[in-house]
Amino acid sequence: MRSVKIPVAAAAVAALVLAGCGTTSDKTSGASPGASKSCKGADGKYTIGMSQANVAEPYRQRMDDDIKTAAKDVPQFDVKFADAAQDNAKQVADVENYITQQIDLLIISPNEAKPLTAVVKKAYDKGIPVIVLDRKVEGDAYTGFIGGDNVQIGREAGKYIAEKLLPSGGNVVELKGLAGATPQAERHEGFVEGIKGNPKVKVIAGASGDWLREKGQAQMDALLKANPKIDVVFSHNDPMAEGAYLAAKAVGREKEMKFTGIDALPIPSGGIKAVEQGRLAATFTYPTNGKEAIAAAKKILVDCGTIEKTQTLPTQTIDASNAAKVYAEENPNG
Amino acid sequence: MTDVQDKAVAATPVGQSSAGVAATLFRFQSVFGLIAVFIAAIIFSPRKNGDILFISADNLANVVRAVSEIGIIAVGMTFVILIGGIDLSVGAVLGLAAVGSAVLMVENDWGFLPSVVLVLLIGLVFGALQGIATAMIGIQSFIVTLAGLQIARGLARIWSGGQGVAIAYGDGPNEAPTSFALLGERTFGGLVPIPVLIFAVVAIAAVVFLRISAFSRHLYAVGGNEKAARLSGVPVVRVKIAVFAICGLLASLAGIVHAVQLNQGSPNDGIGYELDAIAAVVIGGTSLAGGRGSVAGTVAGALLLGVLNNILALNNIDSNIQLLIKGLVIVAAAALQRLRPTS
């Protein structure tokens, strides 16, 4: 349904937006025990196990889909998928099953860091290269980590609101993700930094919508009653931003304010379409890294190379000026 | 009285001699089911270099280790279902116990024994209170434990500050004693995990307890016909409170095992575990109407689910199809119950 997105175009736009904040890397993992052992080169056949924290979130379903799509272009790869359904214990069992199956490489997006650390190390110590996506594990017993930078994304959103949406100041309400979740804290931290440049921007209220559309809507109902003047709603993800929009629309106030989200999934129910259709003023991409994970796997298994220990992918601002174009690029086959 | 006792005796393993071949088959449906699923797992197991991956020692150890938490809970659940009740709070109590172990040992620097004892006590008291609410106030156990689920989850979130509490081991401050880590280790040639041993001890203790104690007869009597049991002098209220207390205690024990296996106590642990435990009990042949069933059946039921989970995962069956297959197995087990001849 969708092939690889155009990296050049994406990189160009990202470079414009980020002005120099691109891919960063720490040290390379030359000593990875898995890399040398598993590589049989281009003639080999490789089974890759992908352990996903849950597929209930559209973002994670898209991550699986991106991996599936990218793997189609590598004939040597056969990718298996497991869904841990948000249960750490199930994800541990999923990885153990992959070890039993003697997979050639493990891709994992952990539900939580601490409970998955031991089993990831177990796989790594058995010589299976491990690529960790989006959420980290503790220690350094993995081959490479690929993820977005939530602080950076929050900062971009804050700057956009302070400079583009409210240059002469205004009232902002913040709809936060699940309390206690790392991305929630990091997006908030970045956002606060991002709006600092414009002291006339005031955050007048905040509420937690737990990442959920319906919760975002309910919280916004209350925020609307309590605050007669709201200029911008900054939401930690697109579904909550959509919920907030619905709440404002229900009381006829949606035109008074602008809504921004985060994630920008290139799917019909995602943030890019919401921007295109005018409900959201902007959203900021949080890359799924699926394509990058397969590229890294190819480097390790087929090219017998090494990968960067940490690969941080840049965010991209999506607003009315580029939404349709980016959506088309991400879904070249419609 | 005689009616109740007949029913009770027929349901206990002691009364087996009077049962017909068909009844025996039905009584041990979960054991036969387990054997069938096990054989199927061997047949459908992926192979690598001639080895059948399913029956590799490592994999079988993984299967029983993954089953042990649900198994421990399911033993307690069997008691509750035998008296015609249900306990929906066990998953949340597991979360509360996991959080409790982590907070006490890591943040409050408590020792291994006092922490474990207090956490077990919390589960016991929590269960007993639910028992009191059903037995003395007369609220249905479904409602009481539904409320209990919310309360335990709320307590777990408050106690942990809404976040998972990571467990590091050592002698320093903010470290759990290394003796706690031993609970998750492997033993017997490095193969059998301690959680499996705990599950085995719990299951054997429950089976023995049901065979030798008078409490067992009371249990089946209350489940078979509560009114008749009361009239014949069975201390119904006490039995009910004890049963819910045992169930809470075992859920709490499972929570301790959970925390040590994941090196973390998270307030969101154990969501949906009550349903897996109920499934194990139902597959084990225990009637949801109460009065009929056995712990041995539940153990076989839990293992059956574990083997099924494992073989579906080893074959990389799509997770949505896995749900479907497990659902069908539960329906099939319940359907077999309907066919079972009444003694």
Concise summary:
The complex is a heterodimer of chains A (334) and B (343). Chain A has 334 residues and is an alpha/beta fold.
Topology readout:
The complex is a heterodimer of chains A (334) and B (343).
Chain A: H1 7-18, H2 33-38, E1 46-52, H3 58-72, E2 77-83, H4 88-100, E3 105-109, H5 113-125, E4 130-133, E5 144-148, H6 150-165, E6 170-176, H7 182-195, E7 201-208, H8 213-226, E8 232-235, H9 238-250, E9 258-263, H10 271-276, E10 282-285, H11 290-301, E11 310-313, E12 317-319, H12 323-330
Chain B: H1 2-11, H2 21-27, H3 29-44, E1 47-48, E2 51-52, H4 57-82, H5 90-107, H6 112-137, H7 141-160, E3 165-166, H8 178-182, E4 186-187, H9 188-191, E5 192-193, H10 194-212, H11 214-224, H12 226-231, H13 236-262, E6 264-265, H14 273-283, H15 295-314, H16 319-339
Antiparallel strand pairs in B: 1-2, 3-6, 4-5
Transmembrane segments (chain B): 26-45, 66-83, 118-139, 188-210, 239-259, 295-315
Subcellular location (chain B): Cell membrane
Membrane topology (chain B): Multi-pass membrane protein
If you had to describe this structure to a student in words, what would you say it looks like?
The complex is a heterodimer of chains A (334) and B (343). In chain A, strand 3, helix 5 (113-125) and strand 4 (130-133) form a beta-alpha-beta unit. The termini of chain A are close together. In chain A, the strands form two sheets. Chain A has a six-stranded parallel beta sheet with strand order 2-1-3-4-5-11, with helices on both faces. Chain A has a six-stranded mixed beta sheet with strand order 7-6-8-9-10-12, with helices on both faces. Chain A contains twelve helices and twelve strands. With 334 residues, chain A is an alpha/beta fold. Chain A folds into two domains: 46-148 and 289-313, Response regulator (Rossmann fold); 150-286 and 318-330, Response regulator (Rossmann fold, 3-Layer(aba) Sandwich), CATH 3.40.50.2300. Chain A is 43% helix and 19% strand. Chain A has helices at residues 7-18, 33-38, 58-72, 88-100, 113-125, 150-165, 182-195, 213-226, 238-250, 271-276, 290-301, 323-330, and strands at residues 46-52, 77-83, 105-109, 130-133, 144-148, 170-176, 201-208, 232-235, 258-263, 282-285, 310-313, 317-319. Chain B has 343 residues and is mostly helical. Chain B has a single domain (52-339), classed as ABC transporter involved in vitamin B12 uptake, BtuC (Orthogonal Bundle), CATH 1.10.3470. Chain B has 16 helices and six strands. In chain B, the strands form three sheets. Chain B has a two-stranded antiparallel sheet with strand order 1-2. Chain B has a two-stranded antiparallel sheet with strand order 3-6. A two-stranded antiparallel ribbon of chain B has the order 4-5. In chain B, a hairpin with a 2-residue loop joins strand 1 and strand 2. In chain B, helix 1 packs across helix 11 (214-224), helix 5 (90-107) runs antiparallel to helix 6 and helix 6 packs antiparallel against helix 7 (141-160). Chain B starts with a helix and ends with a helix. The relative contact order of chain B is 0.21. Mean pLDDT of chain B is 90; it is low at 1-16. Chain A binds chain B through residues 55, 80-83, 85-89, 92-94, 96-97, 99-102, 112, 114-115, 117-118, 179-180, and chain B through 46, 48, 53, 56, 58-59, 62, 66, 69, 161-164, 166-167, 258, 261-264, 266, 268-269, 271-272, 309-310, 313-314, 316, 318-319.
